[in-house]
């Protein structure tokens, strides 16, 4: 009877109850929306960084990370690449030759990192061929082809077929200039990356790095980095362990770029932070409503205790009213939130009007909402907890009544 | 058999400031099957006495024996249980639970007593029939007249088979017809079931039906008239 009484008490004032249910449901929806948005942004940042910069796992010469000296090349990278590509967890892998240098046109010069790539491997690894917005991908038709980004092209006032000069330090430590012709302009949506990188054929770059000295290894075998994309990011540590001893220092994307690990860990807290703030605000609303509901039926509560309903049952009844409130509101909010997340997860939220700012931070201009599964059980726990906490004071107030005084109130 | 026995009961409000003596040494003995009206002018202590007898309030002094138990010695929770099992209340403003139907209101205390479903259903049907509301079982209080609500309140008070019924001005909000109807029911229950009724009232129609009239003046019994 107490649950029936509590349920019916909840609907004594349907407007007030529906307003409160609406507020809680809206709070749940807002928490899901904010979590979905923040997680989507973070994932976009992490995915962009993995796609374009770090991949899931990289292998370098153990000393390369210290000062990125061009002389710290991997030992026989092609041999290891073949072995790596046999691993079932590996989706794609590529060897890159890397060099820091200066690119200049008639209109200006900029410091850049030159990535010497094998076009087919790189296309499979980063999908760079899909990001060409003008011209073509590296086709190897001519010698010394170069890909530059749209922002770089603007800064150097370069176009397709413009000749640019690269100045690099070769393996002998000599500064080596070479002319490259722009064949394609790319746009990844990650502005810091675009402004700092150019792509040339690995073969061309290797020739450039070796042309002043006598190279002991084959020119084709020079490489500074093996980048590996996995079927699933969660396999990174396992693959790292599998590849230990593969001719260099093996690192996961979290080690290469600790900010990614930080962002990944933040994803776990985002929902809790949003839920805490929203539920804290809702607590006052629930306390207010429950208190009103108790105070307006003081005489009735006194009568209930008068005819034999003990304090524990009265307390339980008030708590149940709040719990029922949460039980109705939370699913309503979840339903609303899940629909929103499903839609925005599938079609994304287009923030193109802020694309410049977002690209500055390496984020995509379309945010695909994503809510970790655990959030869907965190929400009922938070709403239930909030309802119970918020009902404690009104319930205490109810059992503090003295029947004789309560009945007398008219 | 003694149902209620008070000895030297006092009730003092504001004992530390300006003391007000609501009851001043009340000795009263009520036996099983009595139909007693407690009368007196406003402020004479009628409701206070009823509240103390019913365990809703505690006396400042003296003893209140109900069914052989000094209820002044019980804790709050023990008092609630005591009221549930031994005392039926009929309030001036009916005080039914608005979200429950007439049937559920009558059944409520029996549920608290953990009576079986069959027993509850049988008792509810019997009592609703006794108060002439068998056809209004599923109505909520807001769908009943004042007189009908008070009849449901009487049925509710009787449901747990209490030792006695306390009724605080039960006819104060009723018209003449409803008052006569209610008094007929209570008189019949008193005679047929030997149920003890104690009223506080100003209503001459109730006083006329009472078989004992206790008059309170300034917190003291000034007259105790039996009409047997």
β-strand percent of chain A reads 15-25%
Number of helices of chain B: 7
Please provide the ordered H/E string of secondary-structure elements of chain B.
EEEHEEHEHHHEHEHEE
Strand neighbour order, sheet with most strands of chain B: 6-7-8-3-9-10
Order of helices and strands of chain A: HHEHHEEHEEHEEHEHEHEHHHHEHEHH
- Helices and strands of chain B: which structural class? alpha/beta
Instruction: Tell me the number of strands of chain A.
Output: 12
How many domain regions of chain A? 2
Tell me the number of strands of chain B.
Answer: 10
Radius of gyration of chain B: 17 Å
Terminal residue distance of chain B? 17 Å
Rg of chain A, rounded, reads 31 Å
Shape of chain A: elongated
- Give the % helix of chain A: 55-70%
Give the largest interface.
A-B, 22 and 28 residues
The total count of helices of chain A amounts to: 16
Q: Tell me the overall shape of chain B.
A: globular
How would you describe the oligomerization state of the chains in this entry?
A: heterodimer
pLDDT < 50 stretches of chain B? none
**Helical content class of chain B:** 25-40%
Secondary structure class of chain A reads alpha+beta
């Amino acid at each position: 009877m107490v649950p029936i009484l509590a349920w019916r008490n909840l609907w004594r004032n349907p407007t007030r109850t529906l307003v409160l249910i609406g507020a809680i449901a809206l709070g749940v929806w807002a928490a899901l929306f904010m979590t979905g948005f923040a997680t989507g942004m973070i994932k976009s940042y992490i995915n962009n960084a993995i796609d374009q910069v770090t991949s899931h796992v990289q292998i370098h010469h153990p000393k390369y990370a210290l000062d990125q000296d061009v002389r710290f090349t991997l030992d026989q990278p092609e041999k290891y690449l073949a072995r790596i590509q046999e691993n079932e967890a590996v989706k794609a892998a590529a060897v890159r030759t890397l060099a820091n240098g200066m690119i200049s046109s008639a209109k200006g010069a900029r410091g850049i990192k030159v990535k010497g790539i094998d076009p087919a491997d790189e296309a499979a690894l980063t999908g760079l061929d899909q990001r060409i917005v003008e011209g073509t991908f590296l086709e190897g038709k001519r010698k010394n082809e170069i890909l530059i980004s749209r922002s770089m092209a603007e800064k150097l006032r370069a176009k397709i077929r413009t000749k640019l000069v690269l100045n690099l330090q070769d393996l002998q430590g000599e500064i080596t200039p070479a002319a490259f012709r722009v064949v394609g302009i790319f746009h990844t949506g990650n502005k810091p990356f675009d402004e700092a990188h150019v792509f040339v054929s690995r073969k061309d770059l290797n020739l450039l790095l070796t042309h002043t000295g006598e190279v002991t290894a084959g020119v084709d075998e020079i490489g500074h980095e093996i980048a590996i994309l996995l079927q699933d990011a969660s396999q990174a540590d396992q693959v790292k362990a599998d590849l230990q001893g593969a001719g260099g220092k093996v690192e996961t994307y979290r080690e290469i770029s600790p900010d990614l690990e930080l962002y990944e860990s933040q994803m776990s807290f985002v929902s809790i932070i949003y839920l805490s703030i929203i539920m804290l605000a809702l607590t006052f609303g629930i306390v207010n409503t429950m208190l009103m509901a108790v105070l307006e039926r003081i005489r009735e509560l006194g009568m209930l205790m008068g005819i034999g309903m003990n304090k524990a049952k009265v307390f339980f009844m008030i708590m149940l009213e709040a719990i029922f409130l949460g039980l109705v509101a939370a699913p309503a909010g979840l339903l609303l939130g899940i629909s929103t997340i499903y839609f925005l997860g599938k079609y994304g939220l287009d923030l193109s009007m802020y694309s410049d700012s977002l690209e500055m931070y390496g984020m995509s201009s379309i945010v695909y909402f994503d809510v970790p599964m655990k959030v869907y059980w965190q929400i009922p726990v938070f709403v239930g907890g909030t309802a119970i906490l918020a009902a404690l004071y009104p319930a205490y107030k109810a059992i503090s009544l003295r029947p004789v005084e309560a009945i007398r109130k008219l | 058999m003694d149902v209620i026995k008070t000895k030297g009961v006092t009730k003092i409000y504001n004992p530390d400031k300006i003391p007000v003596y609501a009851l001043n040494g009340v000795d009263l003995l009520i036996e099983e099957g009595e139909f007693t009206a407690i009368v007196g002018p406003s402020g004479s202590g009628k409701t206070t006495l009823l509240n103390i007898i019913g365990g809703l309030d505690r006396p400042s002094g003296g003893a209140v024996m109900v069914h052989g138990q000094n209820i002044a010695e019980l804790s709050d929770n023990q008092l609630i249980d005591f009221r549930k099992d031994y005392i039926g209340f009929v309030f001036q403003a009916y005080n039914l639970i608005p979200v429950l139907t007439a049937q559920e209101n009558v059944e409520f205390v029996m549920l608290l007593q953990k009576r079986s479903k069959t027993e509850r259903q049988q008792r509810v049907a019997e009592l609703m029939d006794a108060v002439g509301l068998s056809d209004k079982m599923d109505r909520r209080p807001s769908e009943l007249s004042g007189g009908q609500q008070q009849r449901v309140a009487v049925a509710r008070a009787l449901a747990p088979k209490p030792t006695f019924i306390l009724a605080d001005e039960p006819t104060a909000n009723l018209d003449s017809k409803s008052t006569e109807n209610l008094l007929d029911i209570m008189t019949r229950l008193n005679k047929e079931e030997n149920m003890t009724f104690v009223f506080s009232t100003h209503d001459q129609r109730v006083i006329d039906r009472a078989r004992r009239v206790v008059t309170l003046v300034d917190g003291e019994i000034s007259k105790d008239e039996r009409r047997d």
